[in-house]
Amino acid sequence: MKTLLQIRTSMFSAGGQSSQLSQQFVDEWRTANPDGQVITRDIGAQPVPHLTAERFQAFLAKPEARTPEQQAVAGYSDALIDEVRQADVIVLGLPMYNFGVPSTLKAYFDHIARAGVTFKYTEKGPKGLVTGKKVYVFAARGGLYAGTPLDTETSYVRDFLSFLGMDDVEFVYAEGLAMGDAPKNAALAKARDSIQRLAHPLAAAA
Ligand SMILES: Cc1cc2nc3c(=O)[nH]c(=O)nc-3n(C[C@H](O)[C@H](O)[C@H](O)COP(=O)(O)O)c2cc1C
What we know:
This protein has seven helices and seven strands; from the N terminus they run βαβααβαβββαβαα. By secondary structure, it is an alpha/beta fold. The longest helix has 19 residues, at 68-86. Flavin mononucleotide is lined by residues 10-12, 16-19, 93, 95-99, 140-143, 177-178.
């Protein structure tokens, strides 16, 4: 049985454009994988807290030495990591807020990057321990940034996922969503078309 992890990061939860595009892909995937399991992690609705020194200390503490509070923090991080580990396919909705990723996504990344758990240091540098995943990212932006130096989101997300061992990452962009109805509708239609092709690659090639 295949598992898909859907991560919503829009502050508008399922109503965000990035969430709606992601949902289209998830629906197509469900149809193609009727026995598949979908896990939804909505960090727009339930934000991941900022990483603090106390929380980080909980990660570092030996499991048997953790206080009850540290156990709760480490357990929360472990649960987020388990979802990622379980997934064959990860679908990430990615809004752009003030030139970057939603702060709760940064906090989520801070909670799944754990030395000795999701990556390790070796003589040749860091090595990601979360491998064998296919990741789809559905990025929604008010302006036009893809392919320009202002798009720091794409390289940041790609680099972070690669650091954990996830190198097979595909981005779909819906841009210009704040530039009027016609550009917005055209961008969404183009993104929806790309999603169809990603979800049904063989049909698209025929
Ligand atoms: C607080 C806020 C900040 C935003 N900042 C940017 C920005 O820096 N650049 C941009 O192109 N669009 C920006 N937008 C527009 C969003 O990228 C756009 O609304 C997109 O649909 C957000 O994804 P979502 O609908 O999934 O939440 C911003 C929107 C909000 C609400």
